[in-house]
């Protein structure tokens, strides 16, 4: 297991972005990560339009999401603000 990227156990619904916000750390730097409800629905094969359902979908798919996020972080695929936004899986 590669420990170059560490993920916190917490996640929360970001209503402004309509996405789940979770946090990663790489070499002491905090990276805000976001995955949209639409991507969560695609990944899980379900629908969940409410924030609590989105959090449940995230938790069900957490390991796959973190693997994808780690790959993207390793590729330095962050935006201008230093955030990682997962648009597809």
UniProtKB/TrEMBL annotation:
It comes from the Bacteria. Pfam families: DUF1488 (PF07369). Gene3D superfamilies: Shew3726-like. SUPFAM superfamilies: Shew3726-like (SSF160272). InterPro entries: DUF1488, Shew3726-like_sf. This is Transcriptional regulator. It comes from Shewanella algidipiscicola.
